[in-house]
């Protein structure tokens, strides 16, 4: 008999074995069961008796394995009850391709539990073909392809289903996909900011992390929010992963449809390291901002104001796309494959723009402010631009291109990159290692010459790699087969942004 318990962002299959032996009547649970699981025996007994079945007057042992996995919650109620009914021959034995998840009410009702989508994904991967859930959980579970989901409302109905006397509950298909792309605004509403608009198009096309430097109120947040509208919709696997994580965090209700748009997560700089990185409680992951942003965008406004542990904690996700959270005797790997948009004021007071007349910060204070972002973090940020406040003339200009128009170009550029990287372990230019680009994917002769001249004037190797990655994205956006002189020149202009 198989059940599933939440563990990290996925579920872990738990084998439930029920042994009924002669002896003094008792019910024992073996296998690192938390109180909530140990109490399942009493819920199961009441549910079985109140549904008209028999609870034997025997020595009952309920074994849960793997034994070293801490088990918590009420999701094992159902497999425990079904295991008892099978062990006492009240129903036929079941194959290992059937799994159950659900909480039992004392009256035999089968209630929804959290984390069913993640559990269903794990069950399907584990070879389960029939997944039996509470009717309240069935919409989530039915999103997983290759899994027959049977929804039931009470134990009596479940037994009828197992005896082929009932087909379970009819459940509507998932509601139409959720599309909150418009909620964050459209690029047609942006006046001026030509450089930033273009930089964000390049960032979207190549998957590049991006930093925006500019005085308070210049429009950094407004631009970052609209960046999401340039990104393609999530594929099915990404949508399942994103929805699982957001359901686990309680950000969407059980039964909510799949999230199809890349998430946009913008934590305030006062966020704690725990909320930024996530935590583990009773074996269950509480996703942090880095994980909630996975497959989407993480926007850090006033980035130098974040606590150092928050900024340091981003190194591993930026390198590996995931994050290891350690608790006593247990490591949970959380996904954290986000695109970073980082914004900063030019100095602590925010006024060091142009000639910086209004700035009241000392030289050392100013240096320390941006230095908080230096090193390994900034190495990962290909595109770095400075924003200037749009002039009155800009603000009188007609509306710019809509997000849809730009997103089309982004999609075509990404397609070109996908084709080029077909046989590689990455598919976005931003993920291409510099060594591979330098040895096998150089720009044309003129572009290469320009890059070498920049190197001889002090462009360091990491900076040179970033230029090369951007140049490829610029070539993809123009449907060119190789970066040329112009692409390298443009990439060179987008790499400093006040940070070096
Ligand atoms: Zn200042």
TrEMBL record:
Residue stretches making up the AAA+ ATPase domain: 206-391
Gene Ontology molecular functions: ATP binding; DNA binding
Protein name, per record: Unannotated protein
Keywords: ATP-binding, Nucleotide-binding
Family affiliation: Belongs to the Mg-chelatase subunits D/I family. ComM subfamily.
SUPFAM superfamilies reported for this sequence: P-loop containing nucleoside triphosphate hydrolases, Ribosomal protein S5 domain 2-like
Keyword Nucleotide-binding: yes
One Pfam match: ChlI
InterPro entries: AAA+_ATPase, CHLI-like, MCM_dom, Mg_chelat-rel, Mg_chelat-rel_C, Mg_chelatse_chII-like_cat_dom, P-loop_NTPase, Ribosomal_Su5_D2-typ_SF
